Amino acid sequence: MSRETTASLLLIACLVVAPAVRADVSVRFEHPENYKDLQLSAGSTPKIQADLMNQFSKYFKQLGELYLPKGDKLEIVVWNIDMAGGFEPWRSPNLIWTRILSDLYPPRYDLQYRWTDAAGRVKAEQRELVTDLNYRAMVGFTEFSPQDALRYDKATLKRWFRSRFAGEAGQPLLGK
Fold it and tell me: Cβ distance 125 to 74 under 8 Å?
């Protein structure tokens, strides 16, 4: 067999096997019509809300690639979203479209997860409220673009995700 043929077969084998060894994250949004807050402005449309859910789903999958051991599987069910910030239309009629970031409106996510290893053994399973009352002062949001409307939410979710899933054999990495 020629070197080119061997290299091609090896490349094909790697492409076939690679998806099986990556960590797998699935995200399901339960009754998003009942979520407390899934809008960038008071005029957010269902299309914008669907786009936000897609952004959250993609972000959870990115976090899985970064922090989950290869071959592990994480199933996340999102029961509620209350994004960072809130609306204060009483300040001015023009502010109905503006999300105000304040300590009064920390991000809150009601999440349930089931984490299994490559053999299907459950490493952790829990439902919890993910929040950070000090979200505006925490390190992490600056790694995102100032134009990213979800930068505070993503920083909060990243800290939570890393603390729950980046440790060895399900041991959380607190303070890292």
Answer: no
Return d(Cα 21, Cα 41) in angstroms, integer. Answer: 40
Q: What is the pLDDT of residue 139?
A: 66
| DSSP bridge pairs for 111 | 78, 128
CA dihedral (94, 95, 98, 103) in degrees, to 10, reads: 170
**What is the bridge-based pairing of β-strands 122-131 and 108-116?**
antiparallel
pLDDT in tens, 28-66: 999 998 998 888 776 778 898 999 999 999 999 999 999
- The residues, ordered by sequence, that sit 6+ positions from 96 with a Cβ below 8 Å of its Cβ are 41, 42, 43, 87, 89
Tokens of 166: 């980046």
